[in-house]
UniProtKB/TrEMBL annotation:
InterPro entries reported for this sequence: Peripla_BP_I (IPR028082), SBP_2_dom (IPR025997)
The keyword Chloroplast appears for this protein: no
Cellular component GO terms, alphabetical: cell envelope
Gene Ontology molecular functions: carbohydrate binding
Protein name: Monosaccharide ABC transporter substrate-binding protein (CUT2 family)
Family the UniProt entry places it in: Belongs to the bacterial solute-binding protein 2 family.
Domain Periplasmic binding protein: 39-274
Entry coiled-coil feature ranges: none
Alphabetical UniProt keywords: Signal
Amino acid sequence: MKLYQRFTVFAVCAVAALASACAANAPSGGGDGKQFVVGYSQSNNAEPYRAQLNLQLQYYVKQHPDMKLLPITDAHQDSATQVSQVQAFIQQKVDALIVSPNEPAPLAAAVQQACAAKIPVIILDRSVNTDCYSAFIGGDNYAIGKLAGQAAVQALPNGGNVVELRGILSDQPQVDRDKGFRDAVEGHNISIIEQQEAKWLKANATATMQQWLAKGDKIDLVYAHNDDMALGAQLAIQGAGKAGQIQIIGIDGLAIPTGGIRAVQNGQLLTTFVYPTCAEQAVDTLEKLLHQQPVDKKQVLPTTQVTKENAAQLYQEYDMSGKVGG
């Protein structure tokens, strides 16, 4: 089965004055003891996936003495805050910038400003509404959503009722994970009877799931766009005395004690899918950009389905606790 699909190329820079900057701009400095300063604008540290990404990025940057990572900024899911944080990095004249956009549209102008300032920009995990950046690194969310849908079809061979916990509705990963899932379950007598934006957060998912359970409708399976929401739903299901009666599918597959891989191992989740943090690839790409070497503008990373059979092996493969302490 093919797990990859190419991401659509985003719209070209709308501002003509920035057109010349829409390339992989290398910093002007460098060489002989120069330490390149890197800024990273994170969308929301409260999500376990992003907290782990931060730890891993810090670890990999430390392997390069010529790089200095400034304190990672946290937008707390507020796009206006993130725009200000990106602009602050630009004013500091960092040598390179990494951005995990909270939303694609609001961050476009700030990324274009970085391009105009000839600062290489890596877009990590989530898209932005401009192609004025040096590299995009992320997973194929449509393919992952489709695999999740196929897992649901397998779990419900006679059909059934599904509820869907969605991320931030304006995020492209949410859009793709939803579409992939729906395309996969179409024609299999599976009905999505409830759907709600839970903003990627466990507490939101727990509250939403409690409301759905209180309605009394038959629910056979929960599809959550990340493991944090999946485990939030699991708390509500357990609290309602329905543990084991409703299957749960998540996405992220973090190799941490509270992550999706362990949750599959202990039966809290039916399955999840590894969504790479992209940290190692981001630092490898940074190293090339900072030394004026060519990089692939689109880097789409693969996924792996986590099952009870392979969970232990995958946990061992992705576990970085001995390196990052998480």
